[in-house]
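Retro notes
What went well: the complex prediction finally ran end to end.
Inputs used:
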Amino acid sequence: MQESKSSFKSFFIEVGELTYFSGRFFKEVFTKPFEFKELLRQCYSIGNRSVLLVGVTGFIIGLVLTLQTRPTLQEFGAESWMPSMVGISIIREIGPVIIALTFAGRIASGIGAELGSMKVTEQIDAMEVSGTNPFKFLVVTRILAATLMLPILVIFGDAIALFGSYLIENSKGSVSFVLYFNKVFSTLEFSDLIPAVIKTYFFGFAIGLVGCYKGYTCEKGTVGVGQAANSAVVYASMLLFILDFIAVFVTDIFIEL
Amino acid sequence: MNQTENIPDIFKKVESRNLMLEIVELRKSFGNNHVLNGFNLELYEGENLVIMGKSGSGKSVMIKCLVGLMEVDSGSIKVMGRDITKLSRVELDEIRTEIGFLFQGNALYDSMTVRENLEFPLRRHKKKFGDITDTTALVMEALESVGLAHTINLMPSELSGGMKKRIALARALILKPKIILYDEPTSGLDPITSKEIIELMRRVQKQYKTSSLIITHDVDCARVVSERMILLVDGTNYAEGTFAELASSEEEQVKAFFK
């Protein structure tokens, strides 16, 4: 009982600290000096580091989704619905969530480990002492880069997933490229695409925030670095599902209006 | 009786110089753990002051308070007359350009080359040198002063322990600070490299005319570099004096440091 009470308490302390950390981000992001050069470097690093992974993940999502769904649709003679169904499910939900989870595994752990090791080797203190605000230089740039890069990666991943799906459709049902994508886009609406893109900004922010928070507040030496990397992925993934639920819920309210 | 008559000559000599650093009644606790209990310190222009103390005596906490990395509970820390505990972030960053800090573990940025490591402190403080655009001359000057100009394009992982220490010192010197803080400058180094670093510290002090505050366990280092020493026990000044005075002390706690 005592143990669960204390873990309950530490959970709320962690949530409080994370909220304070994100508050500090919003305070620092709008104040000078701006670290544009480092932001661009981080955008390149975070984006470039994830392109291949996102591409492969997207491609496999497209292949698997089509292969798994095709037999069921065939039973009802509804194969012609395949492009629309795959398109909507990838654009609305599967693409953003799976690609964000992959991105979280790659980026949140990377940021957590990098900042964690900088923390335990006093590199962050060295930045502070040299008169550079390390929060602005390390945290603000990484969170912004993750927020800006994930939507682009999701759009890229979605496109690759649809291409993967087309390859299966083409090989199994001889559907042409133009016909397949005509069918995909004929059923897609902006109300499918826009909420999906908007939520990926929140996903990217959450991944960057959790990775930076875990790394920047890392303690207990090298053991702490491992823990920071590990817990960054776990917390970021959990947060993604919570955000996804909120995003779907809010979108649903707007659609009903 | 005139009090100054009791002051040893060595202190009369240093006290005639400008006061660079003054700590008065510094206190810092972590919960019930009282790490600093009214610590006092004065560092004069061009002076080498060594602080010795056992592990956990509060040396590292003191030096972190000194550069504003930790907030103090009470007391004042004046750097060239300005109390850093009362400064804004911008003012603190400005005063930090006058303080070089050599970290115990070097704290080199391992994702950056030696050149980028040295350029880093210049990013926001070029104004000190008339807003220059090309920092190569400053970087080369600092690297040459530690004898490692040829390492400019190497990564920290390609350097030996002694070289990392020298590069860290070059980075601490790049803004031409008036005060240098050394946190265990010879820890983790072999005796030969330690001697080289000690010699380098002396040379750098002459070249840059800095005041140095050195935290060390290394008695050899203290003997060579110190003009004055403070023994820190339980977060407070236990004994002060020159190396010779403290080394010849009959006090048990003091003798323990020099065994």
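What we learned: The mean pLDDT of chain B is 84.
What to try next: split runs per interface for comparison.
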